Amino acid sequence: MTADAPLRRAMAQGGGSRADARSAPTEGEVRPYAARSAGPTRKARRIADLLAERPLFWRPRLTQLLRAATDDDLASLSVAQRAKAVTALQEGPTVEAEERAIARVFLASAGADLTALKNRVDAGDHNDMVQLIHDDIDEADIRASLLAHFAAQAGPLPGPENKVLSDIDDTLKASLNDKRYPKGTVYPGVRQLYLELDLGGAGAGRVGDLGFLTARPEIEGLAEDLWTRQTLKDAGLGHVTILSGDLAHAFDHDAMAEKKAENFRAYHGVFPEYGVVFIGDSGQGDEAAGRAMLAGAPDHVRGVFIHDLDGTKPKDAGGDVIFFDTYVGAAVQAHARGLISDQGLARVAAVALQEQEAVPFKTDAQREHAQALLQADLAKAAAALGEH
After folding, report:
1. What is the pLDDT of residues 154-164, one digit of tens each?
2. CA 133/CA 181 separation, integer angstroms
3. Domain ranges (residues) in the chain
4. Which residues contact 335 (CB under 8 A, 6 or more apart)?
5. What is the pTM of this model?
6. How far is CA 325 from the centre of its chain?
7. Helix 111-121 and helix 79-90: axis angle, to 10°?
8. Which one of 120, 248, 271, 307 has the fewest beta carbons within 10 angstroms of its own beta carbon?
9. Cα 340–chain centre separation
10. Distances from the Cα of 299 to the Cαs of 138, 272, 275, 302, in angstroms?
């Protein structure tokens, strides 16, 4: 590309492309409770042993132990052990006693430990945090107490880290309405932008905060959820949270927007300590969904980025909703808002250029059009980095 010295300089400072690192948190990522310095209590050791061995009738025994445990008992368990207790009881149907045992674990956790616990439970299969709070837990009083605890621990304003929520069809990959790329193409640079937004403006955030907000309905028996997960796995995105639509909202763009906004509210209630960046497209109600998110949580939604499929929306116009043609263009706008670093912008540009070259375009005209859009945004990226 031409006039790319700022891009090359930023790449040299920040290293090459960082592969998507979304994975379940490792033990080293979890800061244990300070109370653990005194060692686990007797009851905590019994809970840990039960989780490790799973003897006959372990489930009712674990439920009884958790409900009888004091805050000190639960605080003396590692965050990983607490998460293991929650996910063990989340398997299959949950009865009220198990729901109250799960609640005890969360209510005994606070601050950074509570965030770490929620992120471990939300580590990328069907049994995620939204599923737990809004589906598995049937008792309204339990759900209300947990959401109130999450809100109290978070405070009124989000911390510096962001959760990244993205649509799938025509946002992650060309699917329904985008004729500029061959159907099924993962857009050049999109995965790298996910990672850079996850890392944040300082480039030092916890990796693992990517989720997908999709109109694809969740069908009885998990067939649709498994198909969606396979789509993401094929795109190199294995461990992610999926907030699905339903059949009642699947055939109208306004209804799709309503369902996505509803799912966002559920997700935001579970993770109120985070800011949120939403990425969608102009084809399935995502702009309306994004505006509803901004209206409902203006202090938490830090960016709504809409992939403009027909190229008619004004770019660089400012405002709360940002339209873009390519993921380099989206990265330029994210960089201007402090959501990604200089090196992050350079990495998105470099990866997008490399991935674009590998796209099997159907015609020369299709290739030339996509290339013109990318080159225009690469020039904007170079200009943005040249100012730093």
Report:
1. 999 898 999 99
2. 39
3. 5-23+158-386, 32-122
4. 341, 342, 344, 345, 381, 384
5. 0.86
6. 22
7. 40
8. 248
9. 16
10. 30, 11, 8, 7
